[in-house]
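Cont'd.
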Amino acid sequence: MPYKSSRNQSHTIISYIIVIALVVVFIAILIKQKHYYVSDASIAEKNVAANRPATSQPPSWLSEQLFGDDFKPANNVENYNADNLYEKIDGKADLYLQNGFVSLQCKRYSSKSSEQNWAEVYVYDMAKTKNAFAVYSGQKRTGRKSLDWAQFGYKTTDSIYIAAGNFYFEIILSADSNELLHSAEAGAKQLAALASKVPCEPFAIGFFPQDNLAADSYRLIGKDAFGCEGMDNIFTAIYHIDGNDLTAYIADMNDDNSANILFEKYHKFLIENGGKELANTALPDSKAVELFGTTDILFCYKNYFAGVRGSGTVGDLTNLAISFKNSLSGTKNDRK
Amino acid sequence: MTENKISRRDFFIRCTKAGLSTAAAAVLAGLLYESDPAKISPQSSNIIEAMNFSVLPVAGKAISIVTGSNRQATVTKAVELLGGMQRFIKPGDNVLLKPNVGFSLPPRVCATSHPELIEQVAKLCFQAGAKKVFITDNPINDPKSCFELTQIASAAKKCGAEIILPRQDHFKQVTLKGAELIKNWPILYEPLRKVDKVIGLAVVKDHRRSIASMLMKNWYGLLGGNRSIFHQDIDKIIVELAVLIKPTLVILDATQIMVSNGPTGGSESDLKRTDTMIASCDQVAADSFGASLLGLKPDDLPYLVKAEKLGLGTTDYQSLKPLYAEVKA
Amino acid sequence: MKITTARRISQVFFFALFIWLCAVTTVGEKFWQLRGWPVNFFLNLDPINAIATILSTHKLYGPLLWSLVAIILTILFGRFFCGFVCPFGALHQLVSHLAHGRKKTDLIALHKYSKAQNIKYYILFVILIMAALGRYSSLQSGLLDPIPLFTRTINLLILPIIGDSAKIMTSGRFYQISLLTLSVFLIFVLLNFYKPRFFCIFICPLGALFGIINRFSILRINRNLSTCTDCKLCNSHCQGSCEPAETLKLSECILCFNCLDDCKFDAIDYNTTNSQTSQVAPDLSRRGILAAAFTGLLALPAFRLSGISARDNNLVRPPGAIGEKEFIKRCLKCGQCMKLCPTNVIQPAGLEYGLENLWTPVMNNRIGTSGCQLDCVACGYICPTSAIRPLTLAEKLGKGDFSGIGPVKIGTAYVDRSKCLAWALGTPCLVCQENCPVSPKAIYAKPAIVLAKQGSQPQIDTELLQPYVDAKLCIGCGICQHECPIGSKGAIIVTPDGQSRENRLYL
């Protein structure tokens, strides 16, 4: 029947048109999926740190020989300044930036015998001794052992931390290895020695006498030390003498006058609260007050206000005070 | 087997209809087509330069300071000294009074403009031939309550002025040319649009953030939206408002000033009677004088210093040779 | 070849294409990832999106121009989209076949036309009126428009379930309000057991739109009155319930072509014959139209009466989202942004921000693998209507040409000091600060002032660092909130304050 066949024919034509349209759509989509936009990540500043010079050019103590013959450098010295410190140490950068950070140099050394053992050395230039101390004391690790050859230094099983002069050093090891640690300590000693040659201003904590000093007992009291309003930013250290804990304290003031004012203020505070003035001839220009069993011997030296206090004998306290004043007035930098 | 073949005519009509619809769809699509997503949003806002309602300055008639305890008498005298209201209002003018109606507090607290003052100023405007006098403000508390409790609504009724309670459609997104803060910000535009003259009326108040609230701070009442954010840089917004609006005349009511717990006050002990009324063509100068009543110097108000730097007025009101008078009660 | 065969091939093809395009909507360049796949193919083709956005924004956004193809082809040939392309329709047809396919009796009654089929036109009107309301306008087509509906169901429900069970994805994807999404989907699918292609016939606004514009179609289904024996067999598998055996209701005919197969006498055909047998316009009553108009006019202002604004709620939208007033005029609720977001942080809103915002994208930093990644602009790239603008990385980060303006701020983080470990419990943590991705960091730490144990002398405890947020630097990415170990919302919370898309809070 011609009608039926022509009908079937037209249906078939329509069907084929539809199928061809589908194929065209399919092919068009396949072509389209090849063309796409990739967001331009290069504008995100990913500077290779090694290319950017630090704003100040510190001497590079990170020599080839720093770790001795058994080690070799594993990369070039990397330099970082305040702008890109984050790229290296990420979240920890804040602590440094808030404390006068100038620059960081770091370098990795690997063991010649086993490449996967390495040590990375960080040399932070903090511009001032007090800044170096601030970052040193601001992030103490647990499980640490004080280093006996450094005034401010300790080590753990896989790292060494030292504050020396204006600098703060960290040596991070890839593993808990005694051999690595040993070499690292040697390297650290070298760095500390180099640091001590760089002129730096005297640091209040550096004046605490070393004898009988309780290890790692330095503290900074931010405000109202010993209950006295206005006694701010006082460094303290603890001494064990004759079974007693004595505290030595010192404040680094802007000038002699300010030191005197604080001296008078604290003295007045002690007297007003019921303190008894003691005669004290052993240490000239000092005052001694006894209050509720604690004796304070306070004095000034130049722009420092300092003193000792505790419940020990007046004799012990006086000796400590004299030793303290000598330290202040005598040798300037008694760091090793 | 005959089929109902469609007549050629009907087929043609159908095709035409289909074709026309297709064309219409295509044309519409083409006209409205926009490939840049940024352009799909409506135009950001109107960029305007200053709205200038001021009249020509006359030397020696820039600022008047009248003492007296009766507000209506002192303000009449103060305006008279500057040349009378007819200097400012021409017959047929539509006038907008912008008082301080910020809080829903009674007049005795002196946190808002006094209704008697507004009534008198409106009367003076009508006497000078004003066709309509509008009163508006975008208060901090509920608008209707503010106009009622401050008694300004009843004052308006008494003198024939019309209150414009701010509604959402009264605000327009405005960008002040060159401004940093008034960018695409809702401003109480509608009342401003339909008037020829604008008179600002303010009281003298202590204010923690801006130090004092007087004539220049008063224009804050033209801001809409989440305007609290501008307290983060209050001096800049006050200055930008002063650039935006150049009023015809400003009247500073220092009859009773708020010296503590401002700008809301609340207690008799917050007020001090200084019995002074100031009319001025220079709001910076008027505020400087007002500051002196609070025991402050122009330097104590950073926005005054900034405004002077921009040439919006002078903080040395003496240099304008103020006209003084006293009105016995 | 029978046309029905071509139709079935087409339905399978487009259904498979639809599922494939949904599945590849993941960031990446591999063949099975996004690349250049036109994943918005169906959304672009859907004329409701184009027309409704024209009504609400007075502009036709670029890619939506493709819907002109669907419109023109419908004007010329009829509702081919419903019969050949729509994947949701294909699903309904399949389920209907499973439900009723083996029936031999009552088929004609099953496919009887019902006046209730006009409901979909009223739904369409309500949607279009809501979109056209000027200041109050809001795009709610996404609630019932089948393409966005099915897209988000696949994206937010089906694919995550499959991916999770088949362990295809590295980390499971999670989506809020899954129960609601499932219920809506399941209800529509199960209604096919009551009436075949229930959704298509009674509810689908897209079908309604096509039903309106196919009035002048050149080719249409026609019954040859002289050869027809009135056996009514052509009604027995009519998917659109348009009753070709009586006066065919052209607006309901979805071109399934089943009637051509069913007719034993070849009395039905698809051609240009006289339109005397078919009624063209949808049979709408004036009352119905008025009721729909009324609903549309009132519904939105009614939604808005509750006075919930973006400011009152913690409504944080993805970066690049436009201002809220404009956003609600453009968001299709398609879920593409939620599917593509590599960290799974973009979530569908539930009813907490009002019915208007149901299924629109909001940031939930506690779900997903991290907050908003710094170097990612995927969501704006994929949004079919530019409710989330396509950002370049330069604009998002505020670099290059945009250095003067600064980065796009999603919001601002606030430390909840009553919950934060360091603030409330004296326990060191600082995970938030550590993870803050911007440089310089927007979270900084300061040592706490804690009282020494002996006596009352305050001492600086240099080990306990407490986090502070610098609002000027914070971009609201929410990584901090995600990492915070405290439960519920965390102890550092991103709020919409300061977001770039509205006026900045911080000057």
